[in-house]
Amino acid sequence: MKTAVYTKDGKEAGEITLPKEIFEVPMNADLVHQVLISQTGNKRQVGAHTQNRGEVRGGGRKPWRQKGTGRARHGSTRSPIWKGGGVSGGPRNDKNYTKEIPTKMRRKALFMVLSEKAKKNLLVVLDSASIEKPKTKDMASTIKNLPIKLDSRLVVYQTADKKMFLATRNIKKTGVSEARNLNVVDLLNYKYLLISREGIKEIETTFVKK
């Protein structure tokens, strides 16, 4: 598959042949969904926590005697039906949402989403993404010149390019990621994928040639 290469001014500077093992993989929505659920679950931080009846203070004494009062029988004020008692079925911070997905499945799902981006013309390749100074204004001007319109976009830069990260992180509706950290969740959260020639080579080196 071939796609156009753009300069920072938004002009076409030839074409590039995309690696078929990355950008020509048939879509399997079930696999992508499975990987998406696993990765979002692994990032989930559980903060809400309720105490059950065994963790609530007090209630060690029977509220009243078993018979003769005319009231219902109760053994402890820590029961969930009492105000201030334990909570039954509430959220717990010890719940584990992590799911393990084999590496081959994760990479296959990643290639499927990348292939869909390329197929639907949502992949924009830059001739070079290097910048002299980490200025947000310059990066915003480059994005404006490209055929990305007003939709969200994910800028993928080569490993250890700190200038690119600093110049991109504050632009609205724009995400930024290293090529080696690319994942299904980030790709699905943004419509367009903006990447350089070097970034594509980095993806190939990281996820294919290993």
End-to-end separation in angstroms reads 23 Å
- Number of structurally distinct domains: 2
CATH topology of the largest domain, which one?
Ribosomal Protein L4, Chain: A
Q: Which percent range describes the beta-strand content? A: 5-15%
Describe, in short, the structure shown.
With 210 residues, the chain is of the alpha/beta class.
Protein traits:
210 residues; alpha/beta; Ribosomal Protein L4, Chain: A; 7 helices; elongated
Characterise the protein shown here.
The protein is α/β, with parallel strands linked by helices and 210 residues long. The protein folds into 2 domains: 2-44 and 97-207, Ribosomal protein L4/L1 (Ribosomal Protein L4, Chain: A, 3-Layer(aba) Sandwich), CATH 3.40.1370; 47-95, no CATH class. The protein is built from 7 helices and 6 strands. It has helices at residues 20-23, 29-43, 103-119, 136-145, 162-168, 184-189, 197-207; strands spanning 2-6, 12-17, 123-126, 153-157, 174-178, 192-196. The protein has a 6-stranded mixed β-sheet. A hairpin with a 5-residue loop joins strand 1 and strand 2 (12-17). Helix 4 (136-145) packs across helix 5. The longest helix is centred in the middle third of the chain and has 17 residues, at 103-119. The radius of gyration is 27 Å and the shape is elongated.
